[in-house]
Design goal:
The chain is mainly alpha-helical and 202 residues long. It has a domain of 141 residues: Hypothetical Protein Ta1238, Chain: A, CATH 1.20.1200. It is built from five helices and two strands; from the N terminus they run ββααααα. Strands 1-2 form a two-stranded antiparallel sheet. Strand 1 and strand 2 form a beta hairpin. Helix 1 runs antiparallel to helix 2 and helix 2 packs antiparallel against helix 5.
């Protein structure tokens, strides 16, 4: 009978965790904050995928893009978790090819959309709202990677470009899936006021 590996090791009970290569650092180390947020981003994309309607045709194509990005984010997390001296030959790293591929996906989705003439409020369909949420997590990951790069020179500029382009793609995909599911986009209003009538509590 195969031996079952326990999910808990107790090694992190002192508030530290291990980088690739064995170095122990605090769990709030900037490197951990960066790749932990990349992991959070992948989970947010997973939620969006779970809300994709009927996986056929164009929806299936979007799901394939999102799955590809989850795989790319897994590699990016490993890249951020590995100090330069511990990287190995042919280690998957963020690339300009990935950035260009996202630009191609953005252009394809935008071809179906009306030009924006106002700010829109995140929401719409369940999948659209989840993609908008993933976009905000992506922006946070981008900010953390930029901060990390100031102290860790091996963090390449392409990692920032990849996250920057992904946040754009998530925004466009959110609009695209809302269009395909006939979910109305709500625009920002500078004159928004509380609803008329009594509130729910007094």
């Amino acid at each position: 009978m195969p031996k079952r590996t326990r999910i808990y090791t107790r090694a992190g009970d002192d508030g530290t965790t291990g980088l690739v290569g064995g170095q122990r650092v605090s769990k709030n180390d900037p490197r951990i904050e960066a790749y932990g947020t990349v992991d959070e981003l992948s989970s947010a994309i997973g939620v969006a995928r779970a809300h994709l309607p009927q996986l056929a045709g164009e929806s299936l194509q979007l799901d394939r893009w999102l799955e590809w990005m989850q795989n790319a984010l897994f590699d990016l997390g490993a890249e951020l978790a590995t100090p330069a001296q511990k990287r190995w030959e042919n280690m998957p790293l963020a690339s300009e090819e990935q950035v260009v591929a996202l630009e191609r996906a953005i252009d394809a989705a935008e071809a179906d959309l009306e030009p924006l003439n106002a700010f829109i409020l995140p929401g719409g369909s369940q999948c659209g709202a989840a993609l908008h949420f993933a976009r905000t997590v992506c922006r946070r990951a981008e900010r953390l990677v930029i901060a990390l790069a100031k102290s860790e020179p091996e963090i390449s500029g392409v990692t920032v470009r990849l996250l920057n382009r992904l946040s754009d793609a998530l925004f466009v995909w959110a609009r695209w899936i809302n269009l395909k599911t006939h979910a109305a986009e709500r625009t920002w209003s500078a004159k928004a006021a509380p609803p008329a009538g009594r509130g729910q509590t007094e």
